[in-house]
Every structure is written in C-alpha cells, then in structure tokens.
Amino acid sequence: MGKVTGFLEFDRKDESYIAPEKRIKNYKEFTVPLEETELKKQGGRCMDCGIPFCHSGCPLGNLIPDFNDAVYKGRWKQAAGILHSTNNFPEFTGRLCPAPCEEACVLGINEDPVSIENIEKNIVERAFDKGWIVPQPPEGRTGKTVAIIGSGPSGLATAQQLNRAGHTVTVFERDAKVGGLLRYGIPDFKMEKSVIDRRIEVLVEEGITFTTNTHVGKDVSVETLKSDFDAIVLCGGATVRRSIPIKGAHLKGVYQAMDFLKQNNERQDGISEWEELIMATDKKVVVIGGGDTGSDCIGTSNRHGATSVTNFEILNKPTVDRPTEQPWPYYPMRLRTSTSHKEGVDRVFSISTKEFVGDKKGNLTGLITSEVEWITAPSGRKELKEVPGTEKKWECDMALLALGFTGPEKTLIDQLGLHTDMRGNVKGTNYATNVVGVFTAGDMRRGQSLIVWAISEGRQAAHHVDTYLMGGSQLPLKDEESDLPRR
To answer: Which residue of 46, 260, 380, 447 has the fewest C-beta atoms within 10 A of its own C-beta?
Structure first.
C-alpha cells in the first residue's frame, strides 16, 4: 500500500450534505464532495491487512485495496480501470449500495472503516468528467442473438457483458424508459436520472438495442422470442408487492409505496397525467415499513410538504452497535439513520397496524395499531406476539405500504413453463432454467436483494449464457469457492 500507516494517521471523513431545510425544496442530489487531497487521504486509510475481507463482503468481488491505493497515489485513471474490471456500473453502487464491503473492512473491527463507497463514487464521477469512460464495442460479432427481458441493473449488466463477447443483444423494457427500479423506484434526490441516461448512451454506442414500451408476454409473445433469438435472459426483478391483509386496506389514501414513488419520478420527468394523483401535500402520512423503500417515501413526502410523517416498523429497534450474534465481518442488522430520516420523521418500532379507518366516502382518516414483541418459541424460532392493552388510534390521511416484494410476476413463468422454488423465484442452475436456452438473473432468480447483487448476477449469468452459445467463455466468472473474481 502507498501509505502503510495511513489508517493510524487519518480519520475517516465522509462527504457532507446540503442542510435538510434547503434540500427538501427540490429533488436534486445534495451531497457535497470532499476535496481531492482529502479523498487521497481516505484511500490511504486502506490497510495492508493481508487478507482483504472487503473482497468477500462485496458481492462483485471489487478489488478495493487496489483502487484505494491508486487513489492515494493520484492515479485516478488506473483506479477507474480497476473499478470497472469487476463492476459495470459503479455510479449506481457508489450512490445506492449499503456498502457491505465497509462492514467487512478489517479496519472496522475497532475503528471507523475505510469510506469505500464514497471513494468508488468519486472514481467513476472523475472518470466520466475526464472522458475516460468511452464505448467499448466488440471487435467482431459472433452471429448469435440474445434477448434480455428487463432493463434493471441485472439486465443492463448481462447486456453489456454479452455484447462485449460479440453477441447481438436486445433489451426489452415494458416501461417508457430504461432502468427498471433504478429509474422508477429510486428518488431523484438519491440518484438523478441523468446518471442512468449517460450510461445508457454508452451502452447504445457499444451496440446494444433497447426496445421500450414493450411488455414481453403481452406485446411480444415468448414463442416469437424463442424463434428470433438464440438465448433469452429473464431479468424482470421481484416486482410483486407485499400487501397488508387487514380491514380498510381498500380505502382511498392507502397506497403501495412503489406507486407513490414511481409517479413522483415520472412527475420529475415531465409526465403529468395519471388516473389518480398521489401526493402527500398537507397530509398526515404514515409509512409502514422501515427499509430503504420506506426511507425513500419519507424523503419524498417531506418534499411534497406533508403535515407530518411517521414511520412504523414491526421489528424491534436495532442497536446502534453491531449485535453480538452478527460479528465482524458479517453484515449487521443495526440501527441505520438515512438522510431522509434526518429530514423529519417520527420513527416507531415494535408496532403492528391492525386496521385502517375511513369516513363514509371511503377516504382514509386514521389507523389502529398495537405494540408487539418478539418471543422465542420452544422451537427456537422468533414469533410475533401482540402486547395486550396497547391498542392506539392514529390520525392519518395517507398510508404508504413499503413492505417489500414477494417475488417475480408469473406471466413469463407460466407461459414458458419455468420451475420455481418455494418462494416463487425462478430456479436457475448456473443461471439456466429448465427450458433450454432460457436463463435468469437478478431478483427474479434470488429474490428481493441489493443493486450490487443484481449487477453480480448479471455478470455471472452472462458468462454462462456465453458458454451455452459458444461452448466456452472468456467473460469473467466469480470463483464460487474463493469468492474472488477470476479472469
């Protein structure tokens, strides 16, 4: 490492943010980057630790010590090359990943870990600014054609890798624009959509075809795809939203979080016509669900000008420190306070919604909850138990259900006759389904997960699709045993 004692000399410093009262007035990203001299110091904090556990913490196997060292030495172009050797889209992960690599950082055992995610974002942003990220079309074409269904991160990663192998790739997307939940699920204040657009421009120049407003299974039959393409890769995600089966769930004012977020993203993109306008302005909002989607709803509601925002989480309040049962280098389930939380919200833990209450016109006016506790059953499993005498009624004009997803939609699964696991995800051995020539990757295969996992899945799937088409592949494949990428 360039600065062997850097971790002893430099404290961790993260980028700062525009003040909440200013940033909630718009939907722009609000981070304030560190100066280059400080970023170099942050790269210099990376230890010469011998065994870089950050590699195994990262689903992509990013070569983190290598690009940290390059940043410390000011070799930014080299750092960009190292970063892109394992990650197709570091501008996405550098903004949106929960950074399991940092939780696995050796320095994090007794100090603040290296600020890996922020360094990653700065590397790729500098690379775009300097013009280092340019289209890399293949030298030749194999004559093989591949259809990819879904343009989220797994679909985009699969597409770029297979295109680099020389195959002719078409990506089908049912929405008006490419990006999947990156575009329609992530608020602009976390990632402005120009970040997606500039990468798509590169992919198009590399030779990838994007066909939007096309719902495969409805607008285009699976029989047509099977006859027109040599291979099909399903990257449709886990998009079936979890509902809450209680009285009053039908009331006007109870919405799925993704309907709320997607409409707001479309509004920022200039779309202004919907069957129903979903706005939190001047409303008492309750967000049910304490994950990232719930946090996004909080930030969006505050930007709408909600009267109040309350966040319900059925789980117990996590500890700030790492739980003893989740030791380093595992990713711990501890209390995380997002930038949206800091913009204004009342967080309530160990609470369950029992009923939505409405007026005679069918409008939501409130909800009823009870406190809950998690007990250990004789079997050893945790079970939920309502605490007697804790029932409470809350005033509420809008309830947003941020309860996650239960799995992929069934249209293509049924039409293709695909095998699924007990959770409804498509089974894929080496990413191949039970139907010859049909593969799957991302949340559709592994269930609801992280963007970094989706990119990893896409890269892995591309290797196996290439092998199917050509009998072998030069595309990188992550070693299942060592958890490190091999070339």
So the answer is: 380
Cβ neighbours for 422, distance < 8 A, ≥ 6 positions apart: none
| Inter-residue contact 7 to 46 (CB < 8 Å) | yes
Write down the residue that tokens 């943010």 correspond to. 17
Q: Check if the beta carbon of residue 328 is closer than 8 Å to that of residue 109.
A: yes
Cα 44 from Cα 1, distance rounded (Å): 8
Element (H, E) at 50: none
The pLDDT, as a whole number, for residue 252 is 98
Angle among Cα 13, 342, 323 to the nearest 5 degrees reads 70
CA distance 174 to 290: 29
- Classify residue 143 by its DSSP letter: S
Predicted local confidence at residue 485, as pLDDT: 39
CA nearest to 469, candidates 437, 445, 439, 442? 437
Q: Is 295 exposed, middle or buried (0-12, 13-18, 19+ CB in 10 A)?
A: buried
Cα separation of 255 and 294, whole Å?
12
In terms of Cα–Cα distance, which of 27, 16, 19 is closest to 187? 27
Predicted pLDDT of residue 276? 93
Please report the pLDDT score of residue 479 as a whole number.
62
d(CA 154, CA 441): 6
Q: What gap in Å lies between CA 10 and CA 409, rounded to an integer?
A: 49
Look at residues 168, 161, 144 and name the one whose alpha carbon lies nearest to residue 470: 144
- pLDDT tens profile 330-378: 999 999 999 999 999 999 999 999 999 999 999 999 999 999 999 988 8
Residue 227's contacts (CB-CB under 8 Å, 6 or more residues apart) are none
| Domains contained in the chain, CATH given | 6-129 (1.10.1060.10), 145-239+406-486 (3.50.50.60), 243-403 (3.50.50.60)
Contact 202, 241 (CB under 8 A): no
Give the pLDDT confidence score for residue 2 in this predicted structure.
Answer: 72
Q: What is residue 265's predicted lDDT score, i.e. its pLDDT? A: 97
Residues of the chain with pLDDT under 70: 479-487
C-alpha to C-alpha distance for 160 and 339, rounded to whole angstroms: 32
Label the pairing between strands 231-234 and 392-395. unpaired
**String of DSSP letters for 201-237:** HHHHHHT-EEE-S--BTTTB-HHHHHHH-SEEEE---
**Residue written as tokens 């592994």?**
446
Q: What is the pLDDT of residues 160-212, one digit of tens each?
A: 999 999 999 999 999 999 999 999 999 999 999 999 999 999 999 999 999 99
0.90 cut: is pTM over it? yes
